[in-house]
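anyone else get weird line breaks when pasting these?? whatever heres mine. first is seq + tokens for prot A
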Amino acid sequence: MNNKLESKIIGITGLVVAVSFIIAFTINAITDINSLKEESTTKSRLIGDTIARSIRTIMLTGNGNIASQWTDDLRMINRLKGLYVIESDGMLAFRSTRTLDTVNQQIGKTLFHREKRTPIRIMDENDPRLRWVYKNKKGMEYIDQGPEGSLFTQLRPIFSGVKCAKCHTKKPEILGVLKIATSIEEVDVGIKKTITMTIAGAIISSTFVIGLMWILLRIVVTKPIAQVAYTIKDIIISERPDKAVEYESADEIGGMVENFNIMTARLNEMYTTLEEKVAERTKQLVQAERIASAGQLATGLIHEIRNPLSGVKLSIQLLENEVDQSLKDDILQISREVQRMESLLNDLLRFARPHPPIFSAIDINEVVSRTVSLTRRRAQSSSVEILEKLREPLPRIMADPSLMQQVFLNLSLNAINAMPDGGRLTIESLYENGFVEIRFTDTGHGISEDYIGKIFDPFFTTRGSSGGSGLGLSISFRIIDEHKGQIEVDSKGGSGTTFTVRLKAV
């Protein structure tokens, strides 16, 4: 993914950079070529102006020495490739590059006359350029291709004047056309050089810039994105969002990485909390299954035990009036044990056949207060202080008040029994995150780690032969579960115990 993203970015930006450099270098090349052409044509025009004035001077003066010197000077101009005086029919009047040796003899009257010995047609008499010059009485410039390269050609009309009448009696308005061909080979060379430099410059510059952009892109963009991608892959493989990307920057990429790390940290926290909640809920489901199984077993046992137990109780009552005084103490002990068995059977019956809850919107603080009033005398006899910390007002909850009182009564009595030498029971109500919580905290001997996972099991008790059926917490657990709530315990041996009942607020 990283390579594809990097290739796309480099491809798009590289194309933009390359096109930009090509356009820039092309514009610069066109400017240089135009400047070179302008400079070359300017020089050629200067040569043309000089030749035109020189010819006119020679024509008017008829000075052979001047003509001889002038022809020698023309031979020194390398740029000059052709000099012709052409009549209206396109025939040569005289030609500089081949017949300059005869110019000295033709100065004067014969200068603009056609050479009779070697007549040469320079231009077609119907040539549109020649016709245009004669018709419009203006000069013309154009570029031809010669064997040695490009030629800048000028067609300049030679006008008749007053001083020309002595030689040209007919007085034509245009005596002839001066055709001057100068080489602009340096323009061709310059164009080739400019094109070569343009292509090379565009390639080198584009390569350098694209390479630099690729390095910066990899450091600033693709590397942190790749780290994020690898981290996500590690999270998927490990199934634990506990990874972070090590990258710090004040730009948008740095902000993205920072937010990604915050997200993974929160996900990890939620994942850990979820694991704890799943473990707790699994524990509750296992506990509920145990209670259900124990309830089914208890239902059968109650019927099997209650009938013979009733017979035993009746027999004991009959024996109390017939036995000697020496046996009455034994009979009384047997009667107490039978009553204990009846109490256990009643607990089993409530456990096995709980009545369905009748829900209504209640104030849980009122249920807590009624429970405290029922247990206060028992607490005072055990030197236990009951401290109420009830938040007012509390949202109402949907619950069965009698069943909730049974739960609170059981938790309060368990706390009092856990403090045989006296202590304090704090009952606190509060509201957090949409839930109403009731906490029972005692200062008793606590519950050891070996027993903490068994206290909600049916028939489990730490009171031994001192009393208790071990069903109170199991029944409480079932009632809270039927109310879609939770009951939790937090305790360490020797440091007291806290039971928390958590119910959804209306």
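and prot B, same format (seq, then tokens)
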Amino acid sequence: MSLVVPAGCAGLAKTRQALSVDDLLTGWNGVDDLWVFAYGSLIWHPGFAWRERRLATVRGYHRSLCLWSHDHRGSPDNPGLVFGLNRGGCCRGVAFLIAASDVPTVFQALWRREMVTGAYTPRWLTCHTEAAPVQGLVFLLNRTCHEYAADLSDDRLLASVRNAVGQSGPCLDYVVETERALRAHGIDDWRLGDLVRKLGQAF
């Protein structure tokens, strides 16, 4: 499955989102289990059942607090920041294997969670694991979306993380929980660790 589904602008209609799931699964035989790559909150709050979990690396992209959140981790007046996979480097995360029988339901839930604003572009990419490479669904940053937070100064990034609160709670909690989950899996993201230390939240 090599199909790339383009992410549109904010405000995609629900019917368009549903079609994009169908397009993404074009070529899937309905029998094979499928992998999903997690690099942020999906690691510690996937929200779906999984059959297997592996540490995995995606090459060509790195984890970055590069997306404004005006709802879940911030507000329109005081936006927070959430993670995206930006170009360059590599990203260590977690690959979840979804049972074939659960794929339609899980993927629809992922669309509702990740694709509402058009901030991500879903792709099938190679996820390198210790056992063997697997093809996994990866949500990449859509650099054309209006939520893209490019070239933020350290001061603005830190202030946004410290102060923003949204429907899902403080942005600070989101960042700290992600760093904690990475460490719990033996993943050393030194940039994120350094950020948490600057936030005064080293544990």
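btw re prot B: The longest strand covers residues 80-98. The two ends are 41 Å apart (CA to CA).
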